[in-house]
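#struct-help
A.M.: can someone run this one for me? Single chain, 141 residues.
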Amino acid sequence: MATKVLIIEDEPEIQAILEMSLQQVGGFDTVIANDGIEGIERALRDSPDIILMDVLMPRLDGYATCRRIKEDQRLSKIPVIFLTARTDPHDIERAMRAGATGCVAKPFDPLKLAGQISKIREEGDRGDRRDLPRRPHGTPK
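D.P.: on it. Structure tokens below:
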């Protein structure tokens, strides 16, 4: 069975690119939510293996959404990966404090995204958050 990724993103164009990239390149199944509140509802209903989430969204931003996910025992084990244009160290640290497993920089390469997500998930599965980059995957060194 394919890995199921819940995409929480408010921009329809980015949703379409993410869905196409993850399905066609990564072989993932995808579920879409338009904001953090809908994302939490979809996570409870669809039991995703990974959550890929924007930071800036209406109703509930990514940081608050991630904190709520991590506080819910039914969802807390699901890796949350932020997809964000906010790549300065302060923003990355804020994402990690909210409970993120990692971050991918916007703009992202649709051909590399599935691999980046898989790598972040593997790093998170090892449980050593010190190994996670302080800069998002996809940004220059």
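A.M.: thanks! DSSP finds five helices and five strands in the chain.
D.P.: also worth noting: Strands lie at 4-8, 29-33, 50-54, 80-84, 102-105.
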